[in-house]
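User: Show me a protein chain along with its predicted structure.
Assistant: Here is one chain, sequence first, then structure tokens.
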Amino acid sequence: MGRLSVKAIRLQDEVLLYAFECENRTYFERYVPSRGDAYYEPESFRQALKRLLTEQANGVGYYYLIWYDDRIVGRLNVHHVDDETGEVGYRIGAEYGGRGYATAALQQLLTFDLPKLNRLIAETTTDNVASQHVLRCAGFAREDEVRQMEWEGQILTFYTFTYQNDR
């Protein structure tokens, strides 16, 4: 899997990223709440991307694209929760799942310099066994507590995973 790379998001990636998001919208919305129709309008998408780039420049969040050769196969984000903790989120496109891309990307992320972040957390639903596997393979450990929320009339239950960055 030597051709997989994780690179910080850039404005130059807008066209390919927009196509990736549009192509995978229905797939992603089966697992996470919709970003809404406005997000998929070109100008709204551009503004959302610019906000992410501003957050990235200010050190409030880190936003990456997962590439396989010249194709975007996923996204990987770290949002600051507090001064020492960041929350990791990732998504892999529908046609790229099950190939180990999320695990490899997350393992790459853990080698990056993420200033001040000594601890990373991630959440996944209790029935998302694939995501739990990704987190465990990358070195995250599941905490005992669970969290619940209502989404589209269903109660979802989440596990929290943590990674202690001892660099």
